[in-house]
Amino acid sequence: MSLHLFRSALFIQTLLCCRIITMNNSLFAHAAITSSLQVEFYATSCPAAESLIQNATQAKWNVDRTITAGLLRISFHDCFVQGCDASNLIKTTPSNAAELDALPNLTLHGMDLIDTAKAAVEEACPGIVSCADIISLATRDAVVTAGGEYYAVPTGRRDSRVSLASSVNLPGPGFSVASAASAFQGRGLNITDMVTLLGAHTTGVAHCEFFYSRLYNFSGTGRNDPSMAPSLVESLKSVCPQASTGLGHTVALDQGTEFDFDDSYYKQLEKNRGILQIDQELTYDHKTSRIVKSLAGRGSRFGTSFGQAMVKMGNIGVLTGSQGEIRRICSQIN
Questions:
Q1: Among 4, 77, 109, 201, which one carries the catalytic annotation?
Q2: Average pLDDT of 34-55?
Q3: Which domain holds residue 58?
Q4: 38-39 and 154-155 as β-strands: parallel, antiparallel, unpaired?
Q5: What is the DSSP annotation of 275-288?
Q6: Tally of structural domains, the chain
Q7: pLDDT tens digits, 213-272
Q8: In this structure, which of 107, 157, 205, 219 has its CB flanked by the most CB atoms within 10 Å?
Q9: What is the CATH number of the domain that holds 275?
Q10: Where does a domain end: 141, 171, 201?
Q11: Is position 324 within any domain?
Q12: Which residues have CB under 8 Å from 73's CB, separation 6+?
């Protein structure tokens, strides 16, 4: 959810609060369902918080339209590893290798916006607004700025004091639909949530290396993936030549409207123009094909559904009350 989202953005292995606690999937899912977040949590303690974050996000989007994908990727990488606690913003120190230095996180994009928004709210209300909430609010604001539907974000998260590179164990783009669904379900998200959240691929890019085999040697056949539209194969081959020099090139995950947050992603899948294998397989798997069809069809409620799924994901493993802390600087534990 690239996002290089699937390179990246999904899951596994959990820590909670300031102690390292290994949790099974059912406990993690329970934590997601029973969080005590609330909309407008800062209405009294820092009434300007949401508008300050929105202003910072709008200003960044005006000069960098890739920020929407960047923030979505930060959100997924945060929530699916240890819970939505901003643990992936913490920098490595001589005594601790943090999540940010794990391979999937090396290309996270949008940290500068989080820092800008944090500085603004710290000036207005020192020590009140968590970095975890800034991630959630800024991501929503970027989605809306890119044309997506507004959704209210419950807040009240606190920031983790724990961040370990060793806890980042994220699957690659070759995950099957069934394996991906299992990973989502382990986080309290159902298969409809999964298909909806993968709609984040309506913006963002993927490197050639993550779909190269679909162009030249699908399943060891020495040919391209027959499920990919021939016109797309030829277009992608021009960007990703059959040489190692092209593996770092990028293409838009949505070949329709690259920077608009809309339902174009699903419409592209129906035309066999999905870039990542996991994306295209959504249209063939009997458990997901109907969902893709409904999100691509006339009267699609993708915008509403996406917001609901993001709110649900935003509950995963949250710290509240006296847990964790409110970081003064998002990249450092107080």
A1: 77
A2: 93
A3: 5-171
A4: antiparallel
A5: SSHHHHHTTTSTTT
A6: 2
A7: 999 999 999 999 999 999 999 999 999 998 777 788 999 999 999 999 999 999 999 999
A8: 157
A9: 1.10.420.10
A10: 171
A11: no
A12: 1, 2, 3, 4, 5, 8, 9, 108, 109, 110, 204
On whether the pTM is more than 0.85, the answer is yes
Nearest to 254 by CA among 309, 312, 296: 296
DSSP-assigned states of every residue in 300-314: --HHHHHHHHHHHHT
Query: Which residue is listed with tokens 């290309």?
Result: 107
> Residue range 180-204: average pLDDT?
93
Sign of CA dihedral 236, 239, 244, 249: negative
pLDDT in tens, 115-166: 999 999 999 999 999 999 999 999 999 999 999 999 999 999 999 999 999 9
Active site residue 286: no
279 confidence band (pLDDT: 50, 70, 90): very high
Question: What stretches of 139-193 adopt beta strand conformation (E)?
Answer: 154-155
Higher pLDDT, 20 or 229: 229
Cα–Cα distance for residue pair 168/15, rounded to 1 Å: 11
Q: Residue 21 gets which letter from DSSP?
A: -
Q: Are residues 164 and 214 in the same domain?
A: no
Task: Read off the tokens for 160.
Answer: 């983790």
